[in-house]
Amino acid sequence: MPQDAISFKNGAIGYEGQSVISDLNLTLAEGSSLALVGGNGSGKSTFLKTIAGLLPIISGDVRVLEDKPGKQTLRIAYHGQFHPHSFLLPLRSIDVVRMARFPHRGLLGRFTTEDEMIVRESLEIMGAWDFASEPINSLSGGQRQRVFLAHTLARKADLLLLDEPTAGLDVPGISLYEQLICKFKKEGKTILVATHSIKEASQCDKVLLLASRVIAFGTPSQVLTRETLLETFGLVAQLNEENLLFVDPHHHG
Amino acid sequence: MLNALAAGTLVAIACGIVGTFMVLKGLAFLGDALSHGVLPGVAVAILWGIPGIVGAAVGSLLMIAGIGVVTKKTKLSADTAIGLLFVGMLALGVVIVSRSQSFSGDLVKVLFGQFLGISTIDLVIQGAATILLALMAFVFQRPFLLLCFSEEQTQVSGYSAKFYHFLLLLMIAVSVIVAFQTVGTLLVFGMLIAPAASSSFISRRLGSMMVLASGFGFIAVYAGLLLSYHFNLSAGASVVLVAVGIFFVIFLFSQKLKPRRIHATRCN
Q: CA nearest B141 in A: which residue?
């Protein structure tokens, strides 16, 4: 019986004491994947930030890797939507990825050969090794996103919190990302991903539909129905059936 | 003159280290405000006959606290809060100074420094502060780098973003306090930003960026002092002018060397 990677009991989450989502009751087993689906401002980022320990819990009991949120720093990687300032750094891409190893080495601990290998491997997996010595502020948006994904990868975490990780990626980049997610799943990592892609959500073990409240939580086939998506987005009925981003699981049997 | 060169070198090193973090973190405006915020502190210190450095320390601490409170308690952007405190402190300084008739000579010294009037005790204090700053930068380089990259990543890595942000402000305050006696409160900002911004065009790594920034700062001090001696110019202003000159020369060269460089657009 795998342990719970995250559990919410009567959880209320939000910003500055104001709750965005309340009455959260759910658990996710270690090694499984959860897609967070919802429109802008629906609470996806708030959910991920709370688990990462970036936002205090408003009320209720939230456990992350059997601990309080934000305590298991070495086991959690958080891939946020980036602060614009990160883009202006004149530092090399490889140094940005090396920062992912800082928590493992402390303030003054020397980098090991293993650290350097992890950094290189992460950049290679994301197809970013070619521009590893380029300053991050001279890269294109998609290239930066690859570097940031390499950073997230290099943390070698057990729990991955990904907030719209494919934003800005080109087609080859998305393909690399999909391979990366497969690799994580095979390695038994727990993945939480906020996504606008119903296709990606349908490939996760569980889906949480959000619209400033929980619309539905369950397996993709239970949750990704026309009715719930309509409740979540309000506009789904008008979407083209052939739109790749919106694959209706009912039509897949 | 030897004291001036030694003091200038210490200022170049202190500002090279701290300025690099300021440029990377995008704290230029805050540094500017902080350097002006020391004015009322220094003015009160002179009025009461205590050392200016003590007044500068109190002034900058008040400024840091003020920025912290205003940005935390209101929904205003940090820019607005800092800008308000900045002009407020500057105005307060001038008001205090204008109360005293015999003050005008001292005011010029405070605003533009007294490069040629540095005593040995000043030098010792500046040396100690510079060593302290270098040590802090070395020990905390990892959380500071993370902070420059992303506050969220700092926090997720187990370092308190708030604490290290405060520590960085404190380091800026210390370097302002160290530097204001030589180049003055109006011009210290130039020593903090110009050499570090120059080196950020050339270097891609934190350590070399700091060394290079200190080097540029030293060249500015040396050349500025020579210019001021030979042409009878204000020492502090000459030094800062050379530092800013170096920035523009390197900026133009870096544009020529990298014509395909893509510049990030700032979007909020």
A: A107
**Is the minimum CB–CB distance between A147 and chain B shorter than 8 Å?**
no
Question: Does B156 contact A83 at a Cβ distance shorter than 8 Å?
Answer: no
* Structure ipTM: 0.87
Total-model pTM? 0.87
- Count CA atoms within 13 Å of residue A119 on its CB side: 20
Structural domains of chain B in order of their starting residue, each with its CATH number? 2-257 (1.10.3470.10)
String of b and e for A106-144 (b: at least 16 CB within 10 Å)?
A: eeeeeeeeebeebbbebbebbbbbebbebbbbbbebbbb
Report the number of distinct structural domains present in chain A: 1
Residue A138 with chain B: CB contacts under 8 Å: 258, 261-262
Q: Which chain A residues in 63-102 lie under 8 Å from chain B, judged by CB atoms? A: 70, 73-74, 76-78, 80, 82-92, 95-96, 99, 102
Domain harbouring A246, CATH code: 3.40.50.300
**Domain containing A155: what range?**
4-252
Residue A52 at interface with chain B, using a CB cutoff of 8 Å = yes
B220-244 confidence digits (pLDDT tens): 999 999 999 999 888 888 999 999 9
